[in-house]
Amino acid sequence: SITIIDHPQNPGYPAYWHARPYGLFAANPLGQKVFSDGKEILNFALKATEQATFRYRIVVGSGKAPSAAEIVHMASSFQQAY
Predict the structure, then answer these.
(1) What's the CA gap between 25 and 23, in Å, rounded?
(2) Comparing C-alpha atoms, which of 7, 37, 4, 38 is closest to residue 19?
(3) Is 6 buried (19+), middle (13-18) or exposed (0-12) by CB count in 10 A?
């Protein structure tokens, strides 16, 4: 199983997620306008000397997939770490 956790300090949190049948699975934290049919808009821009950090926790496991409670715990500990 693969679990990807978005961090609340990321620009555009919570990110819009999408998957495609050919294997693409992606977070799009800057796609509010497109994915909300224009109801949400994020005007995110950086000046030449600025930077942004996007944080995600990726958990890869084999065997039994984590339960919802385990995922909530992983997300909570990730949010508190940064």
Answers:
(1) 6
(2) 4
(3) buried
DSSP letters, 12-56, are: TSSPEEEE-TTS-EEEETT-HHHHTTTS--------TT------E
Tell me the two tokens of residue 49.
């000397």
The pTM of the full predicted model, rounded to 2 decimals, is 0.80
Tokens of 76: 């909570």
Q: What is the dihedral of CA 63, 6, 32, 67, to 10 degrees?
A: 40
pLDDT level of residue 51 (50, 70, 90 thresholds) = very high
In the numeric block, the tokens 């978005």 are attached to: 6
The per-residue pLDDT for range 14-26, each reduced to its tens digit, is: 999 988 999 998 9
